[in-house]
Each structure stands twice: as C-alpha cells, then as structure tokens.
Structures
1.
Amino acid sequence: MENQRLELSRLYARFAFGPMPGQFTQSLTAGFAVSAQNLLNTSVADPQLDSLLPPSLPDLGNRPSQADVAASKAFTKALQVQAMEMTMWWLDRMAITHNPLLERMTWFWHGHWATSIDKVNFALPMFNQNQTLRANALGNFRTMAHAMFHDGALQIWLDGNDNIKGAPNENLSREFMELFALGVNNYTEDDVKAVARAFTGYQAVRSTGVVTFNPKRHDTDLIKLFGSSTPLDGDSAVDLIVSRNENVSFIAQRLWYRFISSSQPLESRFGIESAFANRDIANTMKVLVTGGALSVPDYSVVRQPVEWFIAICRAFSIKPSALKPSTLVLSNLQKMAQVPFLPPNVGGWPTDEAWLSSASAQFRIAFASLIAKQVDFTSLNAVSSEKRIDYVKDLLGIYSFSARTFTALTNAKDDLQQFFVLAVCSPEFVVNA
Amino acid sequence: MDTISRRKFLQLSGAAAVGASAAMLSLEDIAQAAIARPLPLGTPIVVVVTLYGGNDGLNTVVPYTDSLYYSLRPDISYKPEKVPPLADGLGLNPAMTEMKSLWDQKKMAIIRGVGYPYPDHSHFSSMAIWQTASPISHISTGWLGRWLDSQTADPMLAISLGSVPPPLFAGAKRSGSALPLGGLVVPSGKLGMRCQTLSKPSLSDSPLMASAATSMGSLFNLSSNVTSVLQSPAPAAPDLPVTNGGNAGGDTSLQQQLDLVAKLIVAGAPTRAWSVSLGGFDTHANEANAQAALLGNVSYSVSRFMNQLKGSGRASDVTVMIYSEFGRRVKANASQGTDHGTSGPVFVIGDRINGGFYGDQPSLSKLVDGDLVVTTDFRDIYASILERDLKADPAQILNGWKGRVNLLYKQ
C-alpha cells in the first residue's frame, strides 16, 4: 500500500505536473495500474483547454531602422508583449490540461532541443517550434528529428542561416549529434564536419521561422559520413544520425535522467532502451511509467521551478495568467532561474541539487507568499484543522511528511496562507520522493 | 538572462554526482568572518575567471605580422596598425587597452597555446576537462575542489559568485560556497520561525530532501552582529551589448562580480580562492564586434579589480587567472565567425607574476585538422598556482602531474 502511494506520488509529480483536486485520493482507491493507464491515454476530451485562445502573434517583420526611435521602441515593446503572452499561454496549458502527459512531454522536449528566445528574438518561430514539439511529443523520434531540423527557431539559434557551401558553420551539426541525437563521444570530428556540409543551404526567415532550401548554397559534393560517401542533404543526414544505435541508448538515458534519476544510472532491467528501439516515444513512456522504476526508493528528483509552480496551480485550481499583477509569474520564475522559452544554454536546464541553493529557497518562499494571497482557500478552510495536514498531503500528491514538517504545519494550521507556504516549500514537496 | 548552467557542464559530460553539495553564503556571513578571523596579510589569494563559450585566442593575442593570419581569416582579422603590439610579432585585441597597460607594467603573463591532450570540440566536455583537470577519465571533482578536500573544513575558503557553484569547486568531501549576486532576504517573524522548523534535518529525508532542508536552513544561519562593512547589496547587473555568442553558459556581470570580490578581499574575507565568470564567447557568427565587446569588458573589469586592491595591503597577494574551454578554428566560417577549435592563450596577472610570454605560439602553418596545436598543457598552470599560491603539492591534486610554467612567479 505504501509502495502504491510512492508510485502514485511519482506518477503525478513527474509525468503530470501534479494532481488536480481529488485526483490523488481517487487514484489511491483505483490503484496504480488504472491510474497509469489513464495518464498514458492522452486523448481525453478537454473543452476547457480547447477554449484557451492561442497567443496572437502577427508577423512583426524586420526591425525598423534605429534612426526611427518611435518605431524601434514600439517594435521592442511588441517583441516583449508577444513573448510574454506566449509564455503565459503555455503555462496556462500546463496548469489546466486534462492530458498532462502531453504538456509534460512538450516541456521535456523543450529542454532537450533547448532553444532560447534570447537569441531567436521573435515569438512566432518559438511558438511554431512549441507546436512542433507538441505534435511529436509522443510520436516517433525520427519524425521529430526531421521536423526539428526544419524548425526555424532551431536553425536561427544554431546559426543555420550562416551554414553555406565552402564555409560551413558547424554549430547545428555538432549540437545535433552531441545534445539532440547521439551524445558526446558517439561521433567523430570528421562526422561533425560532414554533417555541417550536409546541412548547408537551409535558410530561415527570422521573424517567422519559415525554412526554405536554397540549392545554390548547398554542398552537392560527395560527403563521407559514418564510413560511406554519398551526396547528402539535411534529411538524409538526419536519417543516418537517427539510425545509429547510439541514438537508442542516448534518448533512453535522457528520458531516464529527467524522469527517474539524474544521479543513478539507467538500468537495462526496466526495458527502456528496448522500448525505444523503433524510436516510438509513447511506447517508451509507457515502459518508463509501468516498467517498475517508479517503485525503487532511491530515485528521488527535485521539481524544477516551472514544475513546482505548475503543481501548485493544478492543486489549487490557479490559472497562471489570472495571477496579478500580470508580471508576477514571470518575474518570480526569472528569479528562480527558469522561464519557458529561455533555457540558459543549448544544453537545457540543470537538475536536482542545482535548484537547492539558499537563494532558490529564499525565492521559493517569496513567490509562494505572493501566490498565497491570491489562493482560494474555501475548500481547505472547510476541512477541520485536525485533518488539514492529511488533506494537503493528498491534494499535492506528497508521499509522506516527516515529523519536522508535520510540526511546522501543525504550528501554522490556523493561518491558511502560512500553512500553504510551508506545505509547498517543504522538502517533501520540493523534492519528489 | 540569468544563467545557471555551469553544473550542467559536468553532468552532460557523463560525470555522475557533483561531489559534496555546496553551501550558499550571504554577504553578512562573509563580512562576519572577515571581522572575526581576517585572512592574514600576505596570504596568497587566487581569482579564477572563466570565459564560457570558447574564446577566440587568435583574435585575443593577435599574430599581426603573420601573413597566414590574414589569408586564413580575411574578414575577421585585425589590421596591423590597429593592434597594440606586445612582443614577438604578437599584439593584443584593440579592445583590451587596460590589460595592455598591465602588460607594460610587467604584471601580466600570457601563456600561449594552452590546451589539453586529444582536443574535444564540445563545450561541455572541454569545460568539464578544464574544471576537473582530468582530460582522460571523467571524474566528478574539480581541481580546486580537491585542494579544498586537503584543507581544514571552512565554507569561506573558496567562494564563487552567482547562485550555482561551478564544478571546479566541487570536492569529494567538501565544496566551495556560492554567493548569489544581490544578497539574500530572509523571512522573519512567525513565518521565519516556522521555516526554520521546516529546515531541520529528518531521519526520513532522502539525500535530496536533506539538501532541500539544509539550503533553507542556511538562510537563517546569520549573525546579528554584523557591522557596516558590507551592508549595501550588490548593484543590479548591467546589460551587456547583445552578442551572437550567447548559447553556451556563463554569467554576464563580470564587473559586478569582481567589484564584490575586491570589496570582500579588502575587508579581509578568509577566502583563498574565488571564481567568477563571463559568458557569450561562442562566436559562430559576426564575431568581431561581439568578441571585442566581451574582451573589453574583461579588460576593464580585471584592471578595475586590480586597482581596487591598491592601498589595501593585499594587492600583491592576489593572482588572477583567465581561461576559456577552447580556442576557435583558425579559418573563419562564412558567417564572419569561427567554429570550435583547440588551444588558446591563458592570462595570469598579479604583482608577484613575471610579466611576459610563456609557451610557444602555435604555428599557423602547422595546423592539425585545421586547428592550432597545443604547446602548453593546462595542468602546468594549475600546478604552478597550487604550488606557489595555495602551497599545496600539485602531484597529489593533479594525479601525479609534474609540469610547471617555469619562472612564472617572481623569486
């Protein structure tokens, strides 16, 4: 029974951004197998999510001349507004969706193909990339790799526009193999140079991310890659890369690292690599969820700031964009050092201990205190104060509270705002058991 | 952009856990220690400056008399008349005027052609190698972390600026501390008391939960006895010019970081090793302006730092080392930028340093796969610093390494 509670706590925290009200107690009755099956089915009717309007992102075109001060200012403002609306739209989706695995996987792939609006500048290409990631999030990795190669934001981020026959730019080529598909040391320096040549000639429009192929800039000579020489374009090179055996173990390890444990190695007994043999992501996630790893006590993970915030929103029915002022969420996520569409580098965000500094503890308490003022505590208030600790434990999907946390919550059980802050800042919530 | 990516360098390179977890300090903690137990005058102090992204060494120390330099990178080379000359046909990037003056005062050593064996062009692997000082096998401790392991436990001994400590400070037993820029604000009143309850260790904690509790607890380990030595919080980070090299990590506020380090050194902080960083050197495109802006920032910030130490009695105690994970490809790419390369120059600055060139300049006519050769192993520099500044046995910390940069230090 306790083991079931651990598995369910991990199921919701890691694959669903946390349970919605009532969901965790229902799952305790229904059991892990049924709950996992429900989570893995991502075609639940979701009228609320369907009615969420996507951000309005008209093509802003080229940056006006700096001489035109008024136009430049308006342009910069429009860039900021679009980026903010897009980010809040995604956070809203994470918080209200009834198919949370799909958003959770989109979030995972965003960290995997980590692209930052800091260099891309325009929201529209980032939005298009986000839709591509969502469309392929539980599909086939080979299809995703092709779609991402043709993704404008990624091309801009890794200097694809500058990759031209005769003078290749290796940025996209190297990161494609090192960080996206194969892992470091699973290719040679000659492979980097060869793939860069195969990737020549693709051009992205900065403001829209539309990618076109310009044959005049493409290297049509024979290219020697992985031992054989043929003419190659981007898609044929992507095919060769994804066909490498190393792709299987690399992606399996990345999923393991983010969903199960960043400190303990992937174990073959869980069958995750074999599940990914044909690059089927949905099937691999099924094995990751149901293959037994969730019941091994060692594998705890720290919730990244976005995951921590969304879990709170889901438990307390908060729509992020409804929090006031409109800058509250993003300015606090910025302090906690994790804002969607703004990964720190092409390697994505860090894991675990990196989020456990005193600085993060301080920013977490400050953010939780600000949210507390806007939470609707009606249902928490309706629970008798003796039962409040058990209630919030199930509401947040926490495995168990230690005696220390129980004491802290008991001291605050009649001050609902502080009770809330302490519960969501407790080590047992910040770290998923 | 707030960057917390350095720990990532180790994780992606395959090294497992990052040693012991790091404590987070507040300005008040360090001020308190500076008052209670100041570092004795005359104790050497090391400041490590990491340039993230791969700084282009050939446009930092410029071979302006070599015709190959101009033929290999016609669009991004500096014309001879623009380059302040150093010696041996080499000159400094025109943006580095303040560091040129340190060179003229013979306080700046430039070690040429520095790198590690079997160059790897990955940011993540290269940075992991530089920070662990282990080029062949992946290990999870940093070179200064292993020095910390050999010292008496003291959270003040090694401090990095920014909220995530770099891998170079990760030891097996203990790690350097981190000082977030901007200072910490601690919850007070009932919430503060209850948060302290929440931060007590519990037997049922997993290691990560224990870290979460500890990190909250150290928020409250403050002294009420702090004087006005360091009360003002650090200024906000000034925005850097937009660059094209921004996707490989590092902090952007070098001047702010070094201002704070200077202030703490002058105050007497019992700290022997400091780590600061600047990101943005991954100049695959439109390199000239971006790199010049960054190097100008390095030059100004470092020389300002040295000036702030004057009159404190500690100016001659400090050694500054500036390095990046790799240099860049000799031949320019089509986007007025350069791709990942191999060796590059390392700067070592201080009153006790014999200014001048060390190591051979890699020849532009003898490239290996289009890259510069490595003429000096990076561990020679670490060994000299460990021996001369930190009074440690380099062989113990650097897996038996025997090389040094000869005559780098005076006497």
Note: Chain B touches chain A through 74 residues (CB under 8 Å).
2.
Amino acid sequence: MRKTQLFATACALALVAAGCGTSDDNGTTSKTGGTFEVPDLPMLDSLGENEGKVSILAWPGYAEDGSADPAYDWVTPFEKATGCQASIKTFGTSDEAVTLFKTGDYDVVSASGDASLRLIASGDVEPVNTDLVDNYADIYPFLKDRDWNSVDGQMYGVPHGYGANLLMWRTDEVQPAPTSWSSVFEAGSPYAGKITAYDSPIYIADAALYLMNTQPDLAIEHPYSLDEEQLQAAIDVLKVQKEMVSEYWSDYLKEVQAFTTGDSVIGTTWQVIANVAEGENVPVEAILPDEGSTGWSDTWMVGATSENKNCAYAWMNHIVSPEANAAVAEYFGESPANPKACDLTSKGHCETFHAGDEAYADKIWYWTTPIEQCLDGRTDVKCTDYSRWTQAWTEVKG
Amino acid sequence: MTLSRGIRITLVVFTLLTLVIVYAPLALVVLNSFNTSKSFAWPPPDLTFRWWEAAAASQGARDALLVSLQVAALATFVSLVLGTMAALALQRHRFFGRNAVSLLIILPIALPGIVTGIALNNAFRTIFGWDLGFLTIVVAHATFCIVTVFNNVQARLRRLGGNLEEASMDLGAGIFTTFRLVTFPMLRSALLAGGLLAFGLSFDEIIVTTFTAGAEAQTLPIWIFNNMFRPNQAPVVNVVAAVLVLASAIPIYFAQRLSGSTNQGLTGAR
Amino acid sequence: MDPGVDRGQGLTLSATLHRHPGLRLGLLLTPPMLWLGVAYLGALGALFITSLWGQDSFTGEVQRVWTLDNFRDLFQLEVYRTITMRTLGTAALVTIVDAVVAFPIALYMAKVASPRVQRLLVIAVLMPLWASYLVKAFAWRGMLSERGLVSWLAAPFGLDTPGYGLTATIITLAYLWLPFMIIPIYAGLERLPDSLLEASSDLGARSGHTMRRVVLPMAFPALVAGSIFTFSLSMGDYIAVRIVGGTNQMLGNVVYDNVGAANNLPFAAAVATIPVVIMLVYLAAVRRTGALDNL
C-alpha cells in the first residue's frame, strides 16, 4: 500500500532526523553548586573593542529607551557612549526569560533568583569577571556572593537591585484602602471577579506566605520550601482565589490596561505598573503589606555563546552606574544596587525602598527556584520542586 | 425565484444584521484611531489626528510592514510553484496514494497553528541547526500556503479537463510549450486568486510566525502583538489596522474581477 | 507563436516526458513532497518523538531518555481532561454559532442577490479578514470590558457585559472565523443548480420544505468543509483566549505555556498530540461526506 509505505518512510526519516536533533545535556561539568552540577565555562579575561551591538533581554522597565515614555531613557546615552546599538526584548516571567535566553539570541539578561541558577546550571551563562566592571566595587556588599548569583565564590553576574511585589488597587473602586494580602486571598471578597494575580508558578510562594501568616500550624518556614502537604494547602488557597480572579497577568501592560478599564481593581503588582497607570491618569495606589511579600533580587548575566561580550560588559557597567541605576530604580520602583545612586534619586526614594537596609532586604522572600532539597534545611521530607509547582499552577488555573 | 417572499425578506434582514455585527468592531477600531483616550474609553471623549501622524512617522510600523510584504511575496511565490506542481500531479495522473498526498497538503492548515509552529521551530533549530529569521518565516508560511494555491488550481483543472492540452500536443507542441501557451493562460486567474489568498494568509499570520521568527525579524503581526498593550503605541496599532482594512478592498476587488466565476476564485477558503 | 528556438533539445526532453508519465509524475511531485512530506512531516514526527523524552526541570534541558511519563501525567491528572473538554466544547459551540450565522447570509448571496450585489457582498465578507486577527481580538476586549461598547448597549435592557471568560471567548472566536464559514457555504450553495429548487417547488413543496429537504442536505458538505476550519482554528487558539478569556485556559495555552514558559518541550509535544489526534479523527470522519472536495 502506497499510503503505508509513505507513512513508514516518513516515520523512518523523522526518527533519523530526530536522532540528530534536540540539544543534549552540556558537556563537561566540574564544580558542584550546592545541589547541582555547574558547567565549567571560562570567563572574559580582558575587555576588547566594543562589537557595535548588544541584544538585551530585560524585565520591562529595566532598559528603557524612550519608546514607552520619552522622559525615561537610559539606553540612548549608553549607545552614544559605547557605540553599542542596543536591541531590547522584554519578558513577563522568569520562565519566559529562561526559555528566551536559551535560544542564544541574546547577549545579556536580567535574571531574577528563580532564573539565575537555572541558567547557570544549564551553561547558558558564564561567570562574570567583576574586575572588568568598574562600578561593581561600589555595589552594596550584601548583594554580592549570594546564593542566587554566585557559585563557590564565583560571581555569575552583576547585581541590579531588589524590590518587593506590591498590592495595588484602584482608589476610586476599593474602599477602605486594603492593608493586607487577605484582601486578595480570603473568600467572599467584595471585589470578587475583579482581582488579578501574577501568572506564574512562582506565585504559589505568595500563597505560601499568606499561609505562613494565617495558618501557622502548617509550619511553613520558607515559602519556596514546601513539602507536598504544604503545597496542597497553598493550592487550595489559590483555587479559592481563582474563583474571584478576573484575569491573571504576565504582560505588565495588560495589567495596566485592565486597571485602566476597571476590569481589575486589586491585585499583585510591580511599582512600575503603578507608575505607568498613574501616568495614564488612573487613580491607583500600591503598598507593601506589613506581613511581608515575595520579591526579586536581579542579576545581569552574560550569555556563554554571546558574540558581543564586550558590549555586554559595557551594558552591565552602565546599568549599575549611579545615573542609570538611579533612573531605573525610580522608574521600576526598587532599591538600586549602587549606593551612589541614592544621591541622584528623588528625595525619600531610597528610604522607601530600604536601599542598603540589609535587615529589610533579608525579609523579602526573593524569587528562588524551588528544589527537592528543602531550602529551609529540613532533611526528613522531600520538598516539591519547580516542575511540580508548574504542574500545580496548571491545576490551579483549571 | 422559487424561494418565497417571506424567506427572502428574512434572509435580507439576517444579512444586514450579520454585516453590522461583522463591521462593528472594525468601525470601533477606526473610531479608536481617532480617540484621544489612549485606553480607548467609551464613548470617546474627543477626536484627534495625532495617532495618524504618529503612525505615518512610525519607523517600527514601516519596517514591519516591509518585512511582512517581503515574506508574503516570497511565500506566495514558493507556494504558487509547489501548489501548481502538486495540483498538476494529482489532477492529471492516477496513482496509489493520491488521497494521502491530498491529505498531506491540507495538513499544515488543518492542524492547529501552534502544533505546526512548535514542530517547525524544533526542526529548524535542532535538526537543521538554522538560525531563526527571515528565511525560516518564509519556509513556514509557504508550507501552509501551498494548500490555497493547490485547491484553486485543482478546481480549475478539474473544470477544464484535459482536452485542450491533448489537442495542443496532437498539433505538435511539446510538453513545455503546451504548458506555456495552453495550460498556464487557462490557470492564470486561478493562480492569481490562490496567490492572493496565500498572500493574505501569510500577511496576517501570527501564531506560526511567533515560533519561527527569532529575535530580529519582525513582521507586521508581531509588531502589532508587541505594541498592542503599550499605552503610547496602542492607538498607532489601531491606525495601522484601519489602513489595512481599507487598503484590502483593492486586492480583493481585483481578485473578484479576475477570477471570473466568483466562487471558484475564493474557495481556497482560509 | 513559434517555439522553435531550442526546438530540437526541447522536443527530446518533452518527448521523453510525454512517453514516461511516471517520470513526469515523479518530477512534478518531488519538490512538493520533499517540502511537505519530508520537512513538514519530519518536523511533526520529531516533535512527537520529543514527547516520549524527559526534561530536566531545573536546567530545562531535554533529556533523551525514553519515558511515557508525559503521557501518563496527561491522562492521569484531571485538569488536562477538563481543559480538553473545555476546548472541545468551545470549538464545537463556535462551529455551531458560525454555521447558524453564516448560512442565511451565504444563502442570500448565492440564491437571492443580484450578481452585482453578490460581488459586493463577497468583498464585504472578505475585507475583515485583512484586518489583523490581533486587532480584532483586542477590539472585542475593549468592547467587552467593564465600560465598553457591549456594556453600554446592554445597559438600557438591564443587562451587562459578560466580561472576560468563556462566553467572551466563544463570541470572539466565532466572530474571527465567520468568513471561513461563509465562503465555503456560499460556494457550495452557488453550485446548487436553480433547477433543483424550481423542480422542488413545481412538485408542490413550500419554501420551508424545500429548504429543509433540498437545500440543507446539499449544502451539508460545504458546511462541514467550513467547520473544519472553525474547529481546527479554535482547537489550537491560545491568543484570543489570553486576550478575552479571563482565567480560562485551553489546550493551546497549555502547549504554549509549556513551550514558552516552562521550556518543557516534551510535555508540550505530548499535549499537542491531543488536538492533532482530534483533528485527524475529524478529517477522517468528514472525508466520507465529501467535504474535502469543497475546501
């Protein structure tokens, strides 16, 4: 039968083709970064000529070139000073960042703690020679050599800044002003149908944080360190919340738009979203509830296969320079990494965002990739890892 | 007419109603391109030409438009060649597996776009080791455009039968000559109609394109996708869309004129 | 008129081809088949082979270890059954809505309208196809939002906008694919000879009867042809759902999230088999109705 022959040939060809395709694990590994193997990649010895272009993968608001708002542009000065033409791509979640960066199309990425280790482990980023970054010396010491941006004392990036996820609401639709995350998690909210939440499995940690405060008998010590039972409790909280959610967001502009039309009136946000909304004359306010919040501490990392490493280093140096770091910290709403930036930000900014306050910085539960070994130190149980969280998130959304 | 008056009036009413519903969102798009409110508040607080000026000056939109036109043109050309060859093969010969080939040609369009997208993405990157960019988009688009040309040419060939070609060869013309002087002129309008549909398909495609475009290449739909939600760019997107709708009347009108019988020209569907 | 320039050589080649229809067939078929058969089918095959592999969830690297885990998870976890049912249901409803809305206008265009009006109507039906899919979906997002057009229109009746959700998704998808349903039905009805309708009425049937017993059955293949598109397009759609669907996810979203966000290509490929299998079954089923000739 011609048909079956055709099919069989196609299958055979496909098998052969597939055998040649799809990337495999990276080659030699040597160091062990705590609980995972880290490929041995060389780092740049010295800086050379700038290559003339650099492809930046960034959180929205991190690399503004004036196209979103002409008043905010720290990319054009960079281009003029270094001759590196920057092309910028933004993403909505850390997962997207990892996936995009793995394509190899980008030279430098702003990775949060839940992306950085994964990129290191898969060999997509290489160690950074911090001696080549002039402004690195000024950065707050407590941001250097942390679990999420270094392995065995070797830095894999340049710290960008840190901040927390906030609770935002429409001041004309939500009264009285909310003070706690219970406004978005507790059943029977008066704003049911207009709540919004972040569309990423990492949001489970926010539910876990809520449980830490409201159900202490679950004994959750660390929101990214959940055993199966604790994870189930978090899932239940999120399922209750799902009934009240109008839509989840990962594109920050989609959230701006939802708040503008009033389809969402309360939910998780970043300061930059509130800023953009206020710029559009939408009455919103955003706070960090007293019980604490999840957040991020971001690191700029260089692609291992990048062809524009000099420009990449130039960008990293630029973004943590006092001027640029101040500009992005204000626009995005976070603490800068460079204390000198505090001289240039508006009055009170650094206080509001607790720049340099190590104690405060340690209270934010930074995005971290959950792994099987419990991050809170428990050894008697196995904690749920990120793929379980991803599955759980699909379950939650239903 | 053999349909009663009652039915005819019902049909007219339904038709008008349908047209209203079909064009309401489009009218809204055009209206919003004049809307002063960047978030398209309804009703519009005021009207302005600002966005039209911004659109005319928008480099991003122009570049994306150019890329889209080039991709569509190339994809259409490839699909014209391949679709015609396939149609000639299937219509003029009988062989085992005709149905399988027919099915295979329809497959890229019958399967959901995302499946085609990730399959091609995986194949391009890991099996062939190509960089994603302009050419990969063309290849992807050509793949699902083949069917529109194929359908049109096959339908036309079926209608025409093989007599004229046989007569031509009886008179001494070789195969290529026959094709050039007899077959091709007869197929011309079908090719045009199929090509036009293929062009339209490729021009507006977003799903497969997202997976095969890579970081650099930006077709118009990708540009729209990236700018749709941005407060400063969303109205410009509306302007672009409005222009597209209005401009589309021209090629469609020509397709109508040149395809002769109205239905044959357009039932490449999709 | 005279093709005499390279007559000698051309004649030999063309004569060879004329004497060997098999060779002609082969030459005609090879390029399209290489492109579609090898490249496209090969790509699909590679994708489905990937679904049998695993993934290191930490690094996101695909591991070429044969495993049925992906399919096991797919069948065991209830949420994927829910999503599949939801997607199927949506696709079916969209198809029905489109068929109901498309039939009257197609009938009018084919049988009642004058040739000039016919031509105008065809243009009118096709023009929206050129407005970007994204812009149309986004327009519906605006229309269905809190203070949008639908809410404004429904207010005098005491109703409100359905907001973002499954209803909105069905409305938007039905709107987007409507032209793909109208054109095949119109083409099919146009091929319906007027003489049949006249004969029916000569035999004493009233219009309604004629419609039910003559027109509809003959238009059925065309309806099915249109449904292939609306069904397939709805099964795989993930963009319109994200724009107007609120918290809903469909199969396309699960595939997209696993490829784009979770970087779990093996699982995405496994999920992708569901719509593919459904469409293949659908295509096989409709082949017998002759719809494929009506495409």
Note: Chain C touches chain A through 46 residues (CB under 8 Å).
